UniProtKB/TrEMBL annotation, chain A:
<dbReference type="InterPro" id="IPR017871">
    <property type="entry name" value="ABC_transporter-like_CS"/>
</dbReference>
<dbReference type="GO" id="GO:0016887">
    <property type="term" value="F:ATP hydrolysis activity"/>
</dbReference>
<keyword id="KW-0547">Nucleotide-binding</keyword>
<dbReference type="Pfam" id="PF00005">
    <property type="entry name" value="ABC_tran"/>
</dbReference>
<comment type="similarity">
    <text>Belongs to the ABC transporter superfamily.</text>
</comment>
<feature type="domain" description="ABC transporter">
    <location>
        <begin position="4"/>
        <end position="254"/>
    </location>
</feature>
<protein>
    <submittedName>
        <fullName>Peptide/nickel transport system ATP-binding protein</fullName>
    </submittedName>
</protein>
UniProtKB/TrEMBL annotation, chain B:
<dbReference type="Pfam" id="PF00005">
    <property type="entry name" value="ABC_tran"/>
</dbReference>
<dbReference type="InterPro" id="IPR027417">
    <property type="entry name" value="P-loop_NTPase"/>
</dbReference>
<keyword id="KW-0067">ATP-binding</keyword>
<dbReference type="InterPro" id="IPR013563">
    <property type="entry name" value="Oligopep_ABC_C"/>
</dbReference>
<dbReference type="GO" id="GO:0015833">
    <property type="term" value="P:peptide transport"/>
</dbReference>
<keyword id="KW-0813">Transport</keyword>
<dbReference type="GO" id="GO:0055085">
    <property type="term" value="P:transmembrane transport"/>
</dbReference>
Automatic annotation (TrEMBL), chain C:
<feature type="domain" description="ABC transmembrane type-1">
    <location>
        <begin position="65"/>
        <end position="255"/>
    </location>
</feature>
<protein>
    <submittedName>
        <fullName>Peptide/nickel transport system permease protein</fullName>
    </submittedName>
</protein>
<comment type="similarity">
    <text>Belongs to the binding-protein-dependent transport system permease family.</text>
</comment>
<dbReference type="InterPro" id="IPR050366">
    <property type="entry name" value="BP-dependent_transpt_permease"/>
</dbReference>
<feature type="transmembrane region" description="Helical">
    <location>
        <begin position="67"/>
        <end position="93"/>
    </location>
</feature>
<dbReference type="GO" id="GO:0055085">
    <property type="term" value="P:transmembrane transport"/>
</dbReference>
<keyword id="KW-0472">Membrane</keyword>
Length: 271, 255, 272
């Protein structure tokens, strides 16, 4: 049984269907990229997994998260699944963090929750150790300063690292990353991608990576689903999708990305 | 004669924290210039100075052969006809309550431009590839890419010699992005482009000249091909190496 | 549903406005003459009964509608105008001047409208329709100014403003053709809501004896006078009270409906 199994997922608003039947499986240690342009339904698909659709939208079909049906589950019963089985990191870490709370306190919350779940007593020293451990896991070099800092006092890359640390501290087995590097600079993006890459390998996480940026997805994902207007138009091995796409829409996207890259590589090759 | 010549330009919104440190650059007719930098590099501020929206604390900006004095009304009116902006966010760059026709007519009237306004609007709409009946509609009837075309059309009304574009395609979807880059490339026949971006691929696609900006300093400048094929500065090297790339089909066969 | 709110609001406000207009041309009785016995209960001749001077109460309540609407419209117009001008100026002012203005507005808003109004009345020759409008309008302008200042700053941060500057427009032209059209719908709704509060403020002022002098008594004054006889002639309190509620409720419905309508327009164009 897969960690995550989607069968014929649909998402609809009151008047129309926005996602028309998406199916896939995802297992520990796998990295799946969900690619599409704005309005393709890629984020809606990912948020249905967490039961986090915007108000007014509802999902149909089947989403099995660790064997448990998510569709139609009351929100109250979703809460234990969020964080413990699956966690999300968002595009804008600024809005994912509470601006009026020190980063250390925000990171403490999931650590406490996890301890309470396991029935462990958490001494202040153990909490501190745990905070340091997770900040170290996301390669933050000056954890002391970060723990004391407010969200606005640190860079966008560091905010995203703290958000990832918070997601990991719950001990999830599936990490959903919704455009996690889009708001970051190129150099920071590379570091965050390396980080996610390492985490998947070392923690045996499953990664669902949502992005419109083809090169970024090609960097992180083994398998790719291409979405267009709420449909999964192509699904397959990342290398195959990016080098020998079968569907016309995918070909168009890949050709556009290759064209931009070709301009760059021409310049690089010139003596 | 250079279109723009910046000599040792320094600037800070707050004197204690300068954003630009003695930046010098030149823009020649027909040689699109890319300004590459990450957030906090001062690239957008540099563009604001070139637009004449603020004056440098130190150094001189020459445009069209004379010093840009933003306190002189007449000099600035001339500068508006010489250089026009295109912004990043297609949703913020058009007034949501103003019909496209009026938005395009506005600079024509305010700058006292020659020619029939109706014909000029028809000309710029055609230049950016939008239907002529766009004039009766408001911005919300258009997609992000179309809005960006409208913003370019508004800039073209003044028949400027320089377009100063701040990340003009980074908010657009990939397929739209490529089409807007094609448009800017076509327009480069008539108008010289200064393109500010964090994306080295887009700069490489459009600009034969390049300045790399880091923390308000120009760390590298020259021909784009020279810099990209043989980067001298660590920062440029780091930017190039951190760029994620698609696998190329030949790599597939080579494996 | 929102359309329903708008219609109910229009109906209630329309009713009050109709009555107010009618009083300019026709009244059931002379408001200053004795029309029957004192404190009579409602009858066909006097639907709302008579007051303790034997004057027709319906006539008085009708005149009250005129007073309430005059003060409401006057104060809303004055407050809206001054508030919008001040707010736009504050948004454009230098940092220090803007901070000063913002602080002043905050202090003004912290003052209860009524207290401010009493100060104005005390400072002028005495209570009249004009002082009531001035007092309430000034108090209202502070609230509108604060809103306008924030809205204007938000618009000024948009790229289309920079584009307009690069198109050679001066700040004056930018305010007229870009800032005002973008902030006015919101300001209009805020002014409409303040209009309702102005009507209540006027009633409170005259309840305290600081409103318009008789014979043009407002609802607040009627309420105050009927206080002592509320058990013998309950109509004296019920009639002006209901009238006041109908107008204020109507204005609030209208403002809510207006807000939905302005939002709906955005949605409509989006759907096209």
């Amino acid at each position: 049984m897969s960690l995550l199994r989607l069968r014929d997922l649909t998402v609809h608003s009151a008047s129309r269907e926005l996602v028309h039947g998406v199916s896939f499986d995802l297992d520990a240690g796998q990295r799946l990229g969900l690619v599409g342009e704005s309005g393709s339904g890629k984020s809606l698909t990912a948020m249905s997994v967490m039961g986090l659709l915007p108000p007014g939208l509802s999902a149909g079909g089947s989403v099995l998260l660790d064997g448990q049906q998510v569709i139609g589950r009351p929100d109250r019963q979703m809460v234990p699944l969020r964080g413990t089985t699956a966690a999300v990191i968002f595009q804008d870490p600024r809005s994912a963090l509470d601006p009026l709370m020190r980063l250390g306190d925000q990171l403490a919350a999931p650590i406490r929750r996890r301890a309470a779940r396991d029935g462990r007593r958490l001494t202040p020293a153990a909490l501190r150790d745990s905070q340091m451990h997770w900040l170290d896991r996301v390669s933050i070099r000056d954890p002391e300063r970060i723990l004391r800092a407010w969200p606005h006092e640190v860079s966008g890359g560091q905010r995203q690292r703290v958000a990832i640390a918070m997601a990991l501290a719950c001990g999830p087995r599936l990490l959903i990353a919704d455009e996690p590097t889009t708001a970051l600079d190129v150099s920071t993006q590379a570091e965050v991608l390396d980080l996610l890459d390492g985490l998947v390998r070392e923690e045996r996480l499953a990664l669902l990576f949502i992005s419109h940026d083809l090169p970024v997805v090609s960097r992180i994902a083994d398998r790719v689903i291409v979405m267009q207007n709420g449909r999964a138009v192509e699904q397959g091995d990342a290398m195959q999708i990016f080098t020998a796409p079968r569907h016309d829409y995918t070909s168009g996207l890949v050709a556009a990305a290759q064209r931009l890259q070709a301009a760059l590589e021409d310049a690089e090759r010139r003596p | 004669m250079s279109l723009f010549r910046l000599s040792d330009v320094s600037f800070g919104y707050d004197p204690a924290t300068p954003v630009l440190h003695s930046v010098s650059l030149a823009l020649e007719e027909g040689e699109n210039l890319g300004i590459l930098g990450e957030s906090g590099s001062g690239k957008s501020t540099l563009l604001r100075l070139m637009l004449g929206l603020a004056a440098p604390d130190d150094g001189v900006i020459e445009a069209d052969g004379s010093v840009l004095d933003i306190t002189s009304r007449r000099r600035m009116q001339a500068h508006r006809r010489f250089a026009q902006p295109v912004f990043q966010d297609p949703y913020s760059s058009l007034d949501p309550r103003m019909r496209i026709g009026k938005a395009l007519a506005e600079p024509h009237a305010a700058l006292g431009l020659d020619g029939d306004v109706g014909q000029e609007i028809a000309r710029v709409l055609q230049a950016v590839g939008l239907p002529q009946d766009s004039t009766a509609r408001r911005p919300r009837a258009f997609s992000g890419g179309q809005r960006q075309r409208i913003a370019v059309a508004r800039a073209l009304i003044a028949r400027p010699r320089v377009l100063l574009a701040d990340e003009p395609v980074s908010a657009l979807d990939l397929s739209t992005r490529v089409r807007v880059i094609d448009l800017l490339s076509d327009l480069s026949q008539e108008v010289t482009l200064v393109l500010v971006s964090h994306d080295v691929a887009i700069v490489a696609a459009l600009c034969p000249r390049l300045v790399v900006l880091q923390h308000g300093r120009a760390v590298e400048a020259g021909a784009t091909a020279d810099i990209l094929s043989d980067p001298q500065h660590d920062y440029t090297r780091m930017l190039l190496s951190s760029l994620p790339r698609l696998p190329r089909p030949e790599q597939e066969t080579a494996r | 549903m929102s359309r329903g709110t708008l219609w109910v609001g229009l109906l209630l406000v329309g009713l009050n406005a109709g009555v107010a207009l009618l009083t300019l041309f026709w009244l059931p009785y002379d408001p200053t003459a004795m029309a029957g016995g004192r404190l009579q209960p409602p009858s066909w001749a006097h639907p709302f009964g008579t007051d303790r001077l034997g004057q027709d109460y319906l006539t008085k309540v009708m005149i009250g509608a005129r007073i309430a609407l005059s003060v409401g419209i006057g104060a809303a117009a004055l407050g809206g105008l001054i508030g919008t001008c001040l707010g736009v100026l504050a948004a454009f002012a230098r940092r220090s001047a803007d901070d000063g203005l913002a602080a002043t507005l905050d202090i003004l808003i912290a003052f209860p409208t009524l207290l401010l109004a009493m100060l104005v009345v005390a400072a002028s020759e005495g209570a009249s329709l004009g002082t009531a409008i001035l007092a309430i309008g000034l108090a209202m302008s502070a609230i509108i100014a604060r809103l306008v200042r924030i809205l204007t700053k938000r618009v000024l941060a948009q790229d289309y403003i920079t584009a307009a500057r690069c198109s050679g427009l001066g700040w004056g032209r930018i305010v007229v053709s870009h800032v005002l059209p973008n902030i006015l719908p919101t300001v209009l709704v805020a002014v409409a809501l303040q209009f309702g509060l102005a009507v209540i403020a006027e009633a409170s002022l005259s309840f305290l004896g600081l409103g318009t002098p008789p014979p043009n008594a407002s609802w607040g004054q009627l309420l105050q006078q009927a206080q002592s006889t509320v058990f013998r002639a309950p109509m004296g309190v019920i009639a002006p009270g209901l009238a006041l509620i109908s107008l204020v409720l109507g204005i609030n419905f209208l403002a809510d409906g207006l807000r939905d309508l302005l939002d709906a327009e955005v949605d409509l164009e989006e759907a096209r």
